[in-house]
Amino acid sequence: MIDSLIKRYKKPVKKFYLRYRKPILALYIPLHRIGNSRKCYVCGKTFGRFTKYKGGSTFFPEWISRLEMVGSDVDNFGCPYCGSFDRERHLFMYFDRLDLWNQIKNRYVLHFAPEPHLSNRIEDEGPACYVKADLFPANETIRKEDATQISFFDETFDFVLANHILEHIPNYKKALNEIWRVLKPGGTAILQTPFSKVLRNNFEDDGINTPELRTYFYAQHDHVRLYGETQLLTSFQESGFNLRIVKHFDLFTGMDAHYYGVNANEDLLWLIKPAI
Known about the structure:
alpha/beta, 10 helices, globular, single chain, Rossmann fold, seven-stranded mixed β-sheet
């Protein structure tokens, strides 16, 4: 009975939510702040619930839920205080535990699609050079850069960070080659990317070419594929990187994931350009 009602009213409820999302969030965010069962790893505030991404997993196509996607936790997405996203909070956790901030101090850093909180922390670490880059810069502090045609010389950077951008790039292998090119030998690239644990190969088709179709098949209007785990990880290695996968459960617990609102299945994809 309940399942049939959800199925019947899912589309109109989703349409209503997307149309009135801002006022709904303005109303519900204060309610999310009630309680102390959750905590934002970035700002340190405690509260009752994280905000959902576009209404949460209920509004995503059922078939997407069967693919065991590794990526954002859409049901525990945003901090109701500072607005940090789950994937951003997770990187803070990994960087703290692995002391990756030390690889940024006095180094050359390239950061694609720079998240505000991560960007501020990187600047605080005192890199020798910090380039914030995006294909569509949001402000004058961000440099216009195409990840498939990076304008810098070979072996410029010690550290490249691109958190959830490869799924937006049609020729992602060219982007991987470019990131490898601009990294110094021994340099690090952190390339978190959503992928399916069920799919072995990437799923993409030229016919899926409208925002509506991309949302249905790829779970977001500006994604251009769903990555299969085997093909994605193989692509990293074929581009010349040594791949180190740091598992969430090697550093944290399931309770940590719940408390801080991160996806326990999202391991850290740590790519290293071999030293000469």
